[in-house]
Amino acid sequence: MSDPLPPFDAARRLLFTVAYQMLGSVADAEDTVQDAWLRWSAADRGDVADPRAWLVRTTTRLALDRLTSARARRETYVGPWLPEPLLTGAAPTSPGATATGPDPADEVALGEQVSLALLVVLETLSPAERAVFVLREVFGLPAAEVAAALGRSEAAVRQLAHRAREHVEARRPRFDADRRAHREVTERFLAACVGGDVDALLAALAPGAVLVTDGGGRSKAALRPITGADKVARFLAAVASGGAALPGLRMELADVNGLPGVAAWTDAGPFVAVSLGVADGLVQQVLVVLNPDKLSGLGAGAAPA
Fold first, then answer.
1. Nearest in space to 254 (alpha carbons), one of 112, 99, 88, 91
2. If phi over 0 gives left and psi between -120 and 50 gives alpha, with beta otherwise, what is residue 79?
3. What pLDDT digit, counting tens, does each position of 295-305 carry?
């Protein structure tokens, strides 16, 4: 029997990104890809004409199974639920390890694909719609391949794709795609947060800025979205002030889900990840993940150099 590792390695980043977009969870995506590996290594690969298609199909089905149980758990979640942030650019640590992010060269293209803002919108789709959107709209897989992955007809897949696309377009926030402008705004935002400067934060925020925090009952966070630049600025300044007392706090500009964002670590490990929606040179949306259970995608300890 042929070595199962080379074809799996070739598809691993794709499989992780598919699972991550389906589940909004780094840990669940890694577990899903690991399950796909176990099935692939035990399969009769001599009958598999297209290993990549087989792996995508298997990963999609495993992710759908996990998504059903995950949605039930989210019904009792404390406060707003946000996807797990991913510090992009990380590489697998060993041949059998699961990737935790895209190559740096892929980050610009992946920024829109894995942005927290898009993942929040994908949460409003049905599991089947989400699978079709991810496979068709994000990765451009043929309808026949998606139909095989979901066990549905091509006509049904096209109908699901149309419905999902309309749903996403109607709800997706309109942010600037200019990466340099996004980075410049993020740098101003970070400097204001580090300094606890409310006035500087107000200058970086759009008047109608919205902040959503996810503490999951594990960390202090707002239980409802906060709207308005003044309220958002004061909340962020208070969080920064409280965090300053934590041993070894380090706040860094980092690529969070393919776009410039903010991440922070303490001596105890990851502390917070912040993803920004930027338009017209101002921050329109602030997504803050404080739940320690959701910060594995930031690494275990020190901030990047």
1. 88
2. left
3. 988 875 444 33
CA 267 to chain centre: 24
> In this structure, are residues 242 and 264 in contact, taking their beta carbons and an 8 Å threshold?
no
What's the Cα-to-Cα distance from 237 to each of 99, 159, 195, 233, rounded to whole Å? 35, 46, 8, 6
- Dig out the tokens for 13 from the structure: 């980043």
Q: What is the largest CA-CA distance in the chain?
A: 65
Global confidence as pTM: 0.86
What is the torsion angle, in degrees rounded to the nearest 10, for the CA atoms of residue 292, residue 294, residue 297 and residue 303? -20
Give the residue among 13, 97, 16, 25 at the shortest CA–CA distance from 66.
25
The C-alpha atoms of residue 193 and residue 188 are separated, in whole angstroms, by 9
Q: Which residues contact 229 (CB under 8 A, 6 or more apart)?
A: 201, 202, 205, 206, 207, 208, 209
DSSP state of 87: B
Point out the least confidently predicted range of 6-10, 174-178, 201-205, 228-232.
174-178
The per-residue pLDDT for range 130-189, each reduced to its tens digit, is 999 999 988 889 999 999 999 999 999 999 999 999 999 999 888 887 889 999 999 999
Q: Residue 11 and residue 300: Cα distance in Å, rounded?
A: 25
For residue 277, give the 3-state DSSP assignment: strand
Going across the sheet that includes 269-279, the strands are 226-227, 205-214, 282-289, 269-279, 259-266, 250-256
Tokens 């190559």 identify what position?
A: 103
DSSP bridge partners of 265: 250, 270
